[in-house]
Design goal:
Structural class: mainly beta
InterPro entries: OxRdtase_Mopterin-bd_dom, OxRdtase_Mopterin-bd_sf
CATH class: Alpha Beta
Pfam families: Oxidored_molyb
Protein name: Molybdopterin-binding protein
Radius of gyration: 16 Å
Distance between the termini: 20 Å
CATH architecture: Alpha-Beta Complex
Helix content: under 10%
Order of helices and strands: EEEEEHEEHEEEEEEH
Strand content: 25-35%
């Protein structure tokens, strides 16, 4: 069951040419989740990258905070037709996290605290395209928006930017995650309106 909270209606501004087809611009930040918001204490938070060989790379919250961070300004696009322009985030690039990860796999399954999963091609996580984000608009990321840390893959529909991120598992095949198993598109390019399979 989805939880829909404040801001979902948004303000339907004329999107112009800055947003993908079928989207409207909102000034709010709608909250859409598949279940209750997990309570994740930073003292117990951990991120792990698991390769197809069984190797695991792990970071505690303090270890994540010690890595080089980047400030990112980007538009985000939800499959439910809203777009929010010029959002600002701070986080660690996946390029940094994958610097010592040896893998020949082409796909990643993102796992969240709370059980959510979503699949993303590895090539869409690297080369400055994605981050583990822990700040939004200069403030710590609120739990309802995926705090303490979420995946940020802004060039895909926002369901690919998994909230409450806890792990990335390398996979040889493109297996569907939660929404993909329920009829959403396997890739999710907003400019091609890849909403559903």
């Amino acid at each position: 069951m989805s939880i829909v909270t404040r801001g979902f209606g948004g303000r339907r501004d004329d999107p112009g040419d800055d947003v993908p087809p079928g989207q409207f611009v909102t000034q709010d930040f709608p909250v859409l989740s598949t279940g209750p918001t997990p309570s994740v204490d930073e003292a117990h938070w951990q991120l792990a990258v698991h390769t197809e060989t069984g190797a695991a790379h792990r970071w505690s919250w303090d270890e994540l905070m010690s890595l080089p961070a980047e400030d990112v300004t980007t538009d985000i696009h939800c499959v439910t037709h809203w777009s929010k322009l010029g959002t600002t985030w701070r986080g660690v690039s996946l390029d940094t996290l994958f610097a010592d990860v040896e893998t020949s796999a082409d796909f990643v399954m993102a796992h969240s605290y709370g059980g959510y999963t979503t699949n993303v091609p590895l090539q869409d996580l690297l080369d400055g395209q994605s981050w583990v984000a822990y700040e939004f608009e200069g403030e710590p990321l609120e739990p309802v928006h995926g705090g303490p840390a979420r995946l940020l893959v802004p060039h895909l529909y926002f369901w690919k930017s998994a909230k409450w991120l806890r792990g990335l598992v390398m996979e040889d095949d493109d297996q569907p995650g939660f929404w993909e198993s329920n009829g959403y598109h396997a890739y999710g390019d907003p400019w091609l309106e890849q909403r559903y399979s």
